[in-house]
Amino acid sequence: MNIKKTSFPRIVIVGGGFAGVALAKKLSKQDLQVVLLDKNNYHTFQPLLYQVSTGGLEPDSIAYPIRKILKDFPNFHFRLADVEEIDPIKNKVITNIGKLKFDYLVVASGSETNYFGNTNIEKYSMAMKTIPQSLNLRSLILENFEDALLTSDLNERNALMNFVIVGGGPTGVELAGALAEIKKGILPKDYPDLDTRLAQIHVVQSGDNILKGMSAKASQKAEDFLEKLGVNVWKNVRVVNYDGKTVTTNTDITFETATLIWAAGVKGANIKGLDAEKFITRGNRLLVNEFNQVREFNHIFAIGDVACMTSEEYPNGLPMMAQPAIQQGDQLGDNMLRLIEERPMKPFVYTDKGTMATIGRNKAVVDLKRFKFQGVFAWYVWMFVHLFFLIGFRNRMVVFVNWVYNYVRFDREARLIIRPFKRR
Ligand SMILES: Cc1cc2nc3c(=O)[nH]c(=O)nc-3n(C[C@H](O)[C@H](O)[C@H](O)COP(=O)(O)OP(=O)(O)OC[C@H]3O[C@@H](n4cnc5c(N)ncnc54)[C@H](O)[C@@H]3O)c2cc1C
């Protein structure tokens, strides 16, 4: 990998997401050699992926070069590498570009879509976990309307204009709201020859409520907002199969659609070598102690989505969200210094700063510890928080200008089929 061993301890971090970047920023200032490995050369701001899928933002505005984030630190090294295996005994990682020894290893590889073993759904549905997947979805949505315009078969036309989103969490809700706004504001102008009123957006949720991690008020308000936008919300319905045409559920409800979007779950993106049953727990996550150490090891850590740290308050582990990832990365930076200097480490305590979701223009729900609010003010708060956490001044400016433009013009100009979607 062309990284010379120095007298400093070498810390290898796998993954440049929220957790890995927070940790690297903290450690790179110290007398340590920090090596960050990621299969992409950019950090992805996943909370805004749905805006890329729906033509609201260009992909470049939610991605940021990892090298640039840490360019000022001479002890920091980045390598574009897919980590294929971890050897925790010989202390090395095996990647597609070679092997690398470590003194300390931090797994921050995030999560991946969980299809719960349903191979048909995995094969035919669309996921939205990465920028390429979001671009695929953007292309497919637009291609569907181009095809709907050409077909004279009414059933086929309806299926092309039907969108079924599985999962009523923030991702499903935000995507449904954005699609509903496209249906209302963009499609009639772009496709005057097509009766776009027939386009249907469905959110299918297996439980009693959407946004189930949020307050009952937020959940109800989000449902009201979606209904106002014309989205069909199906609760207590579980999708069981999809053959590329028909979605079947555990009830007698079925949907004919060319687009099933799977936003119903994620699991830890664990890596071979640490995947034995003794290391993993619920959702394929690495079981860690209060210092983020992986069971049996003092020198191997996991942070962010891939780590499962349980406590009385969070018996199933911390939520798979950006805040726990950032806070763990930040705190582990301090703890690793303590460990190296043979001082006692401090247990991690998660500070819940709140949860929010936007449903559309002037429509959002925000749950903070003390205050819960919905509507226009919540929407401004949502926008401010997302701009604040985006990495890079340029990205913040581009996103802000895009949002103002889209708001004033009722538009989404990135509705481009740059790379046509080809089904596997
Ligand atoms: C569509 C969507 C919307 C979301 N919205 C919100 C939201 O509104 N609020 C919120 O708090 N959270 C949200 N989340 C969740 C949040 O994005 C994650 O919890 C957060 O990204 C976790 O950070 P992480 O550092 O653990 O992992 P990630 O940010 O996923 O980073 C993992 C990194 O590891 C790399 N990697 C993985 N495997 C390997 C390997 N084998 N070799 C090399 N590199 C590897 C990946 O390329 C990636 O860069 C959303 C997620 C999605 C998908």
TrEMBL record:
Domain FAD/NAD(P)-binding positions: 10-329
Transmembrane segments: 376-393
MF terms in GO: oxidoreductase activity
Group of enzyme by EC: oxidoreductase
Catalytic activity: a quinone + NADH + H(+) = a quinol + NAD(+)
Protein's UniProt keywords contain Iron: no
E.C. numbers: 1.6.5.9
InterPro entries given in the database record: FAD/NAD-bd_sf, FAD/NAD-binding_dom, NDH-2, NDH2-like_C
Ranges where the External alternative NADH-ubiquinone oxidoreductase-like C-terminal domain occurs: 353-407
UniProt keyword list: FAD, Flavoprotein, Membrane, NAD, Oxidoreductase, Transit peptide, Transmembrane, Transmembrane helix
PANTHER family documented for this protein: EXTERNAL NADH-UBIQUINONE OXIDOREDUCTASE 1, MITOCHONDRIAL-RELATED, NADH DEHYDROGENASE
Family, per entry: Belongs to the NADH dehydrogenase family.
Protein name from the UniProt record: NADH:ubiquinone reductase (non-electrogenic)
